[in-house]
Amino acid sequence: MSFIKHTVFIAIIFLGLSTHQKAMAQCEVLVWSDEFDGTGLPNSANWNYDLGAGGWGNNEAQTYTNSTTNVRQENGNLIIEAIKTGNNWTSARVKTQGKKGFTYGKIVYRAKLPTGVGTWPALWMLGESITSAGWPACGEIDVMEHVGKNQNVVQSALHTPSSFGNTQNKGSKTVSTVSTEFHEYSVSWNAERMIFAVDDIPFYTYKPATKTAATWPFNTNQFIIMNIAMGGNFGGPIDASVTSAKMEVDYVRVYEERTAPVIEGRPFLFENEQGIQYKAPDYGSGITYDWTVPEGATVVSGQGTNQITVNWGPSDGTINLVVNGDTGCTDNTASLNVTTIVEPTGLKYTIDNFSNPLLPGWTKNDNAIAFQAVDNHLKVDYNLTSLKYIQYEMPKAVHLSNYSIIKLPVKVGSDSSIPNLLLTLRDGDGKETITTNFEIKVVKNDGAFYTYSFNFKDQWNLNNPAVNDNFIKSLKIYMLPGQSSFQLGPIEMYNNTTIPEAPSDLSASIDDQGKILLSWVDGTNATSFNLYRSSNTTDPYIKIKSSIKTSEIPYVINPTEAINYYKLSGVNNAGESSLSSEIEVVATITGTEALSNSLISVYPNPCNGRFFINTNGGPVKNLKIFDSKGRVQSFETIQDNTLLIVNLKSINSGIYFIILNQESKTFVAKIVIN
After folding, report:
1. Is the entire prediction scored with pTM above 0.90?
2. Which helix (H) or strand (E) holds 82?
């Protein structure tokens, strides 16, 4: 499967952002209610009435009255009853208009609804500005509507100018016992959103991205309304067998939704960091705040108030708070665990080297992923139908501003397909490098480790929201759908402020296809390498290849018709290293004459399958012979002083290639057999 990066971005944004929305705990403070414990008409201090007929803008059939036949308190409930007399319907609509109005809070109605096709009970609210701005500019909040033609389905809706008053912003829920049991129908309303719920189980949220008078006429008082309508545009035709409909309301309650005591502030600090602010909700007058901090930390200012300034100490600890006074919350305590941030030093910081076989901190988000520690490596097997990930939660947050170069060795066996992997880092607030992720472009599945690198420097702020490199707390590796198995080596972050040291331990080798491979040790903070070549050790070295990736080691070089010397440099954002020590690679030898600067020779050429190699006494580390199609040939050798006698076991006419390694040299010779 090809790596479709845009698909990954979309999926990660969904996964990452949807699972890290933080909500403050709420405590509900009752600010007003009517429990309907009296008799007769409801309390006139709270309620008045809409009266009359005329269809009420919806072609409704009823005439509203304030008669106890249609509205009354009875057995601790408010009864609203629609009654048919002859061909006429009467009902009631009670409201708090001009008496009680509310902006924000949780409004709760506990009610049992009528049955019957054509019934239309509603528990709702209208903006007090209806007398001046009109409808729908005043805004309408339908907390609960139910129509008998769709029994047991309740609906919540908003009417705004942006919807032209139509029922466009809505949600519904099936409740099988709406007419046999009491249920709580509620809206939780603040300046950002409305959440509609039945029995405290949310089912619809209204949260427009842009709030204007057209989309959000809900920042001023609304009054409460309860009624039963009959028929109309929404209720539909009334069943002729229906002669009455009764709604029972146990109570209406309005709560102020206050934030429960919580400490807001940074949970990750540098050792001995100064002037850090922490705050708690402001509960108004008559409230005091008792803060305590761990040993070594000091409250510099604000003790007794809802906001303090702290000078931190050298170690981890907990900030505790006791709020004294009537907050309306049952629990008036809060605490915040604060951990010190790790400051890396030296060349690199190891995130995890998998030395602990229990793999503490590692988790997965799907059972189709399996991982285990194998020889200080992390082995991962997966078979996925959708994007999933493994995650490492670091023991402490790490300051990576100066350690932004990540290097990750990956090995894939020949029996596994090449995996599509992507790595992100996340700060302590859960913000993730979605935009500037590290796409791990695995190149080979030959059972060898290849190191992949990426530099997050100057990338953190390009994410939305920006990732704070002062306290990186976790790492994720995403896997695209498919099946594979791979191993990870130590995950390390390298210093980005220093120029790399020159690569070391250059060597040349020959693979089974006869290719000459240049290898070196990647133990520096380089993110790429430049390759230089010269015809001798005294002439200048010319750059022949730039930006060789760590995953391209060993790098294939093509010898020319002469001796060549190669050097490497390491590169990162800070600059380019000095050149490494050289390695000598000898080009193709076609006859018995020795090349300049080298006494090696091959003869006779052509030959009959038996030939001699004069090595000038230098020890042979490796010798391979290939035919013109790259097939490895079998042979026997006899060492006679400085002469190596070679006998091919199978002799066919044609051109053959001899590749020979000495201590710091690689020779390629062409020989003809006839």
Report:
1. no
2. strand 77-85
